[in-house]
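Amino acids appear as letters; backbone shape is given numerically. Here is one record.
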Amino acid sequence: MIFGYARVSTTGQSLDAQVEQLKAAGAERIFSETASGAIGSRDQLRRVIAKLDAGDVLIVTRLDRLARSTRDLLNTLATISSRNAAFRSLAETWADTTTPHGRLMVTLLAGIAEFERELILERTREGTRRAKEAGVQLGRKPKLTHHQRREILARVRAGEESDQDIARSYNVSRWTIMRLAQEVRREQLDAQQLAAKIV
C-alpha cells in the first residue's frame, strides 16, 4: 500500500496542495496534520509509520515535510526501513528507497551526516583540550570560593551549627553544605580508624 504524509506548520497554511500531489502520486491513504516539525509534535507521522507493513511505501511532497534535520531524517528513514517499508519524496527524486539508486543516496547521506558528526566531536574535543591547556575553568562556576570552603569545613568541624544554618549564611543549598560535611565526616572516621589501629 502507498501511504502519504502531509504536514503544514501553522493553521493558516493549507494542506490541499500537498494532499492533491500525494493522491496524484498514487497515495491510497493520506495522514495529514498541522504541527511544527518538532519530533514530539508529529502524532500523525507516528501513526502512519506504525501502519506500515512490509512492502508499503510512505511518500511526502518534500523532505522538509518529514524531517527538520539530517539526523531527524535519517532516524525516521531507519524506522521506516525497520518495518521493511520504503520511502519516497516527490520533490527530491534522489530520496527514493524503492530503488537501488535511492537507497545508495540515502546511505551516502547517512555517511556524510556521520562524518559531519565526527568532525564536530573532534573540533569540540580539540577546543576543550586547548582550553584546559590554557588553564580555562570548564563547566559551571563553583558556588563557593576556596576560602569559603575552608571556612565552611571549619564550621562543620566545630559542630556548633546545623548544615541549614551554614547554608543560609553562604546563600547556598543545604545539599552543598552536606556534601562538604561528608568530607569532614570521612576525615573524622579515617582519623578514628587510624587511632584504633595505633592503640
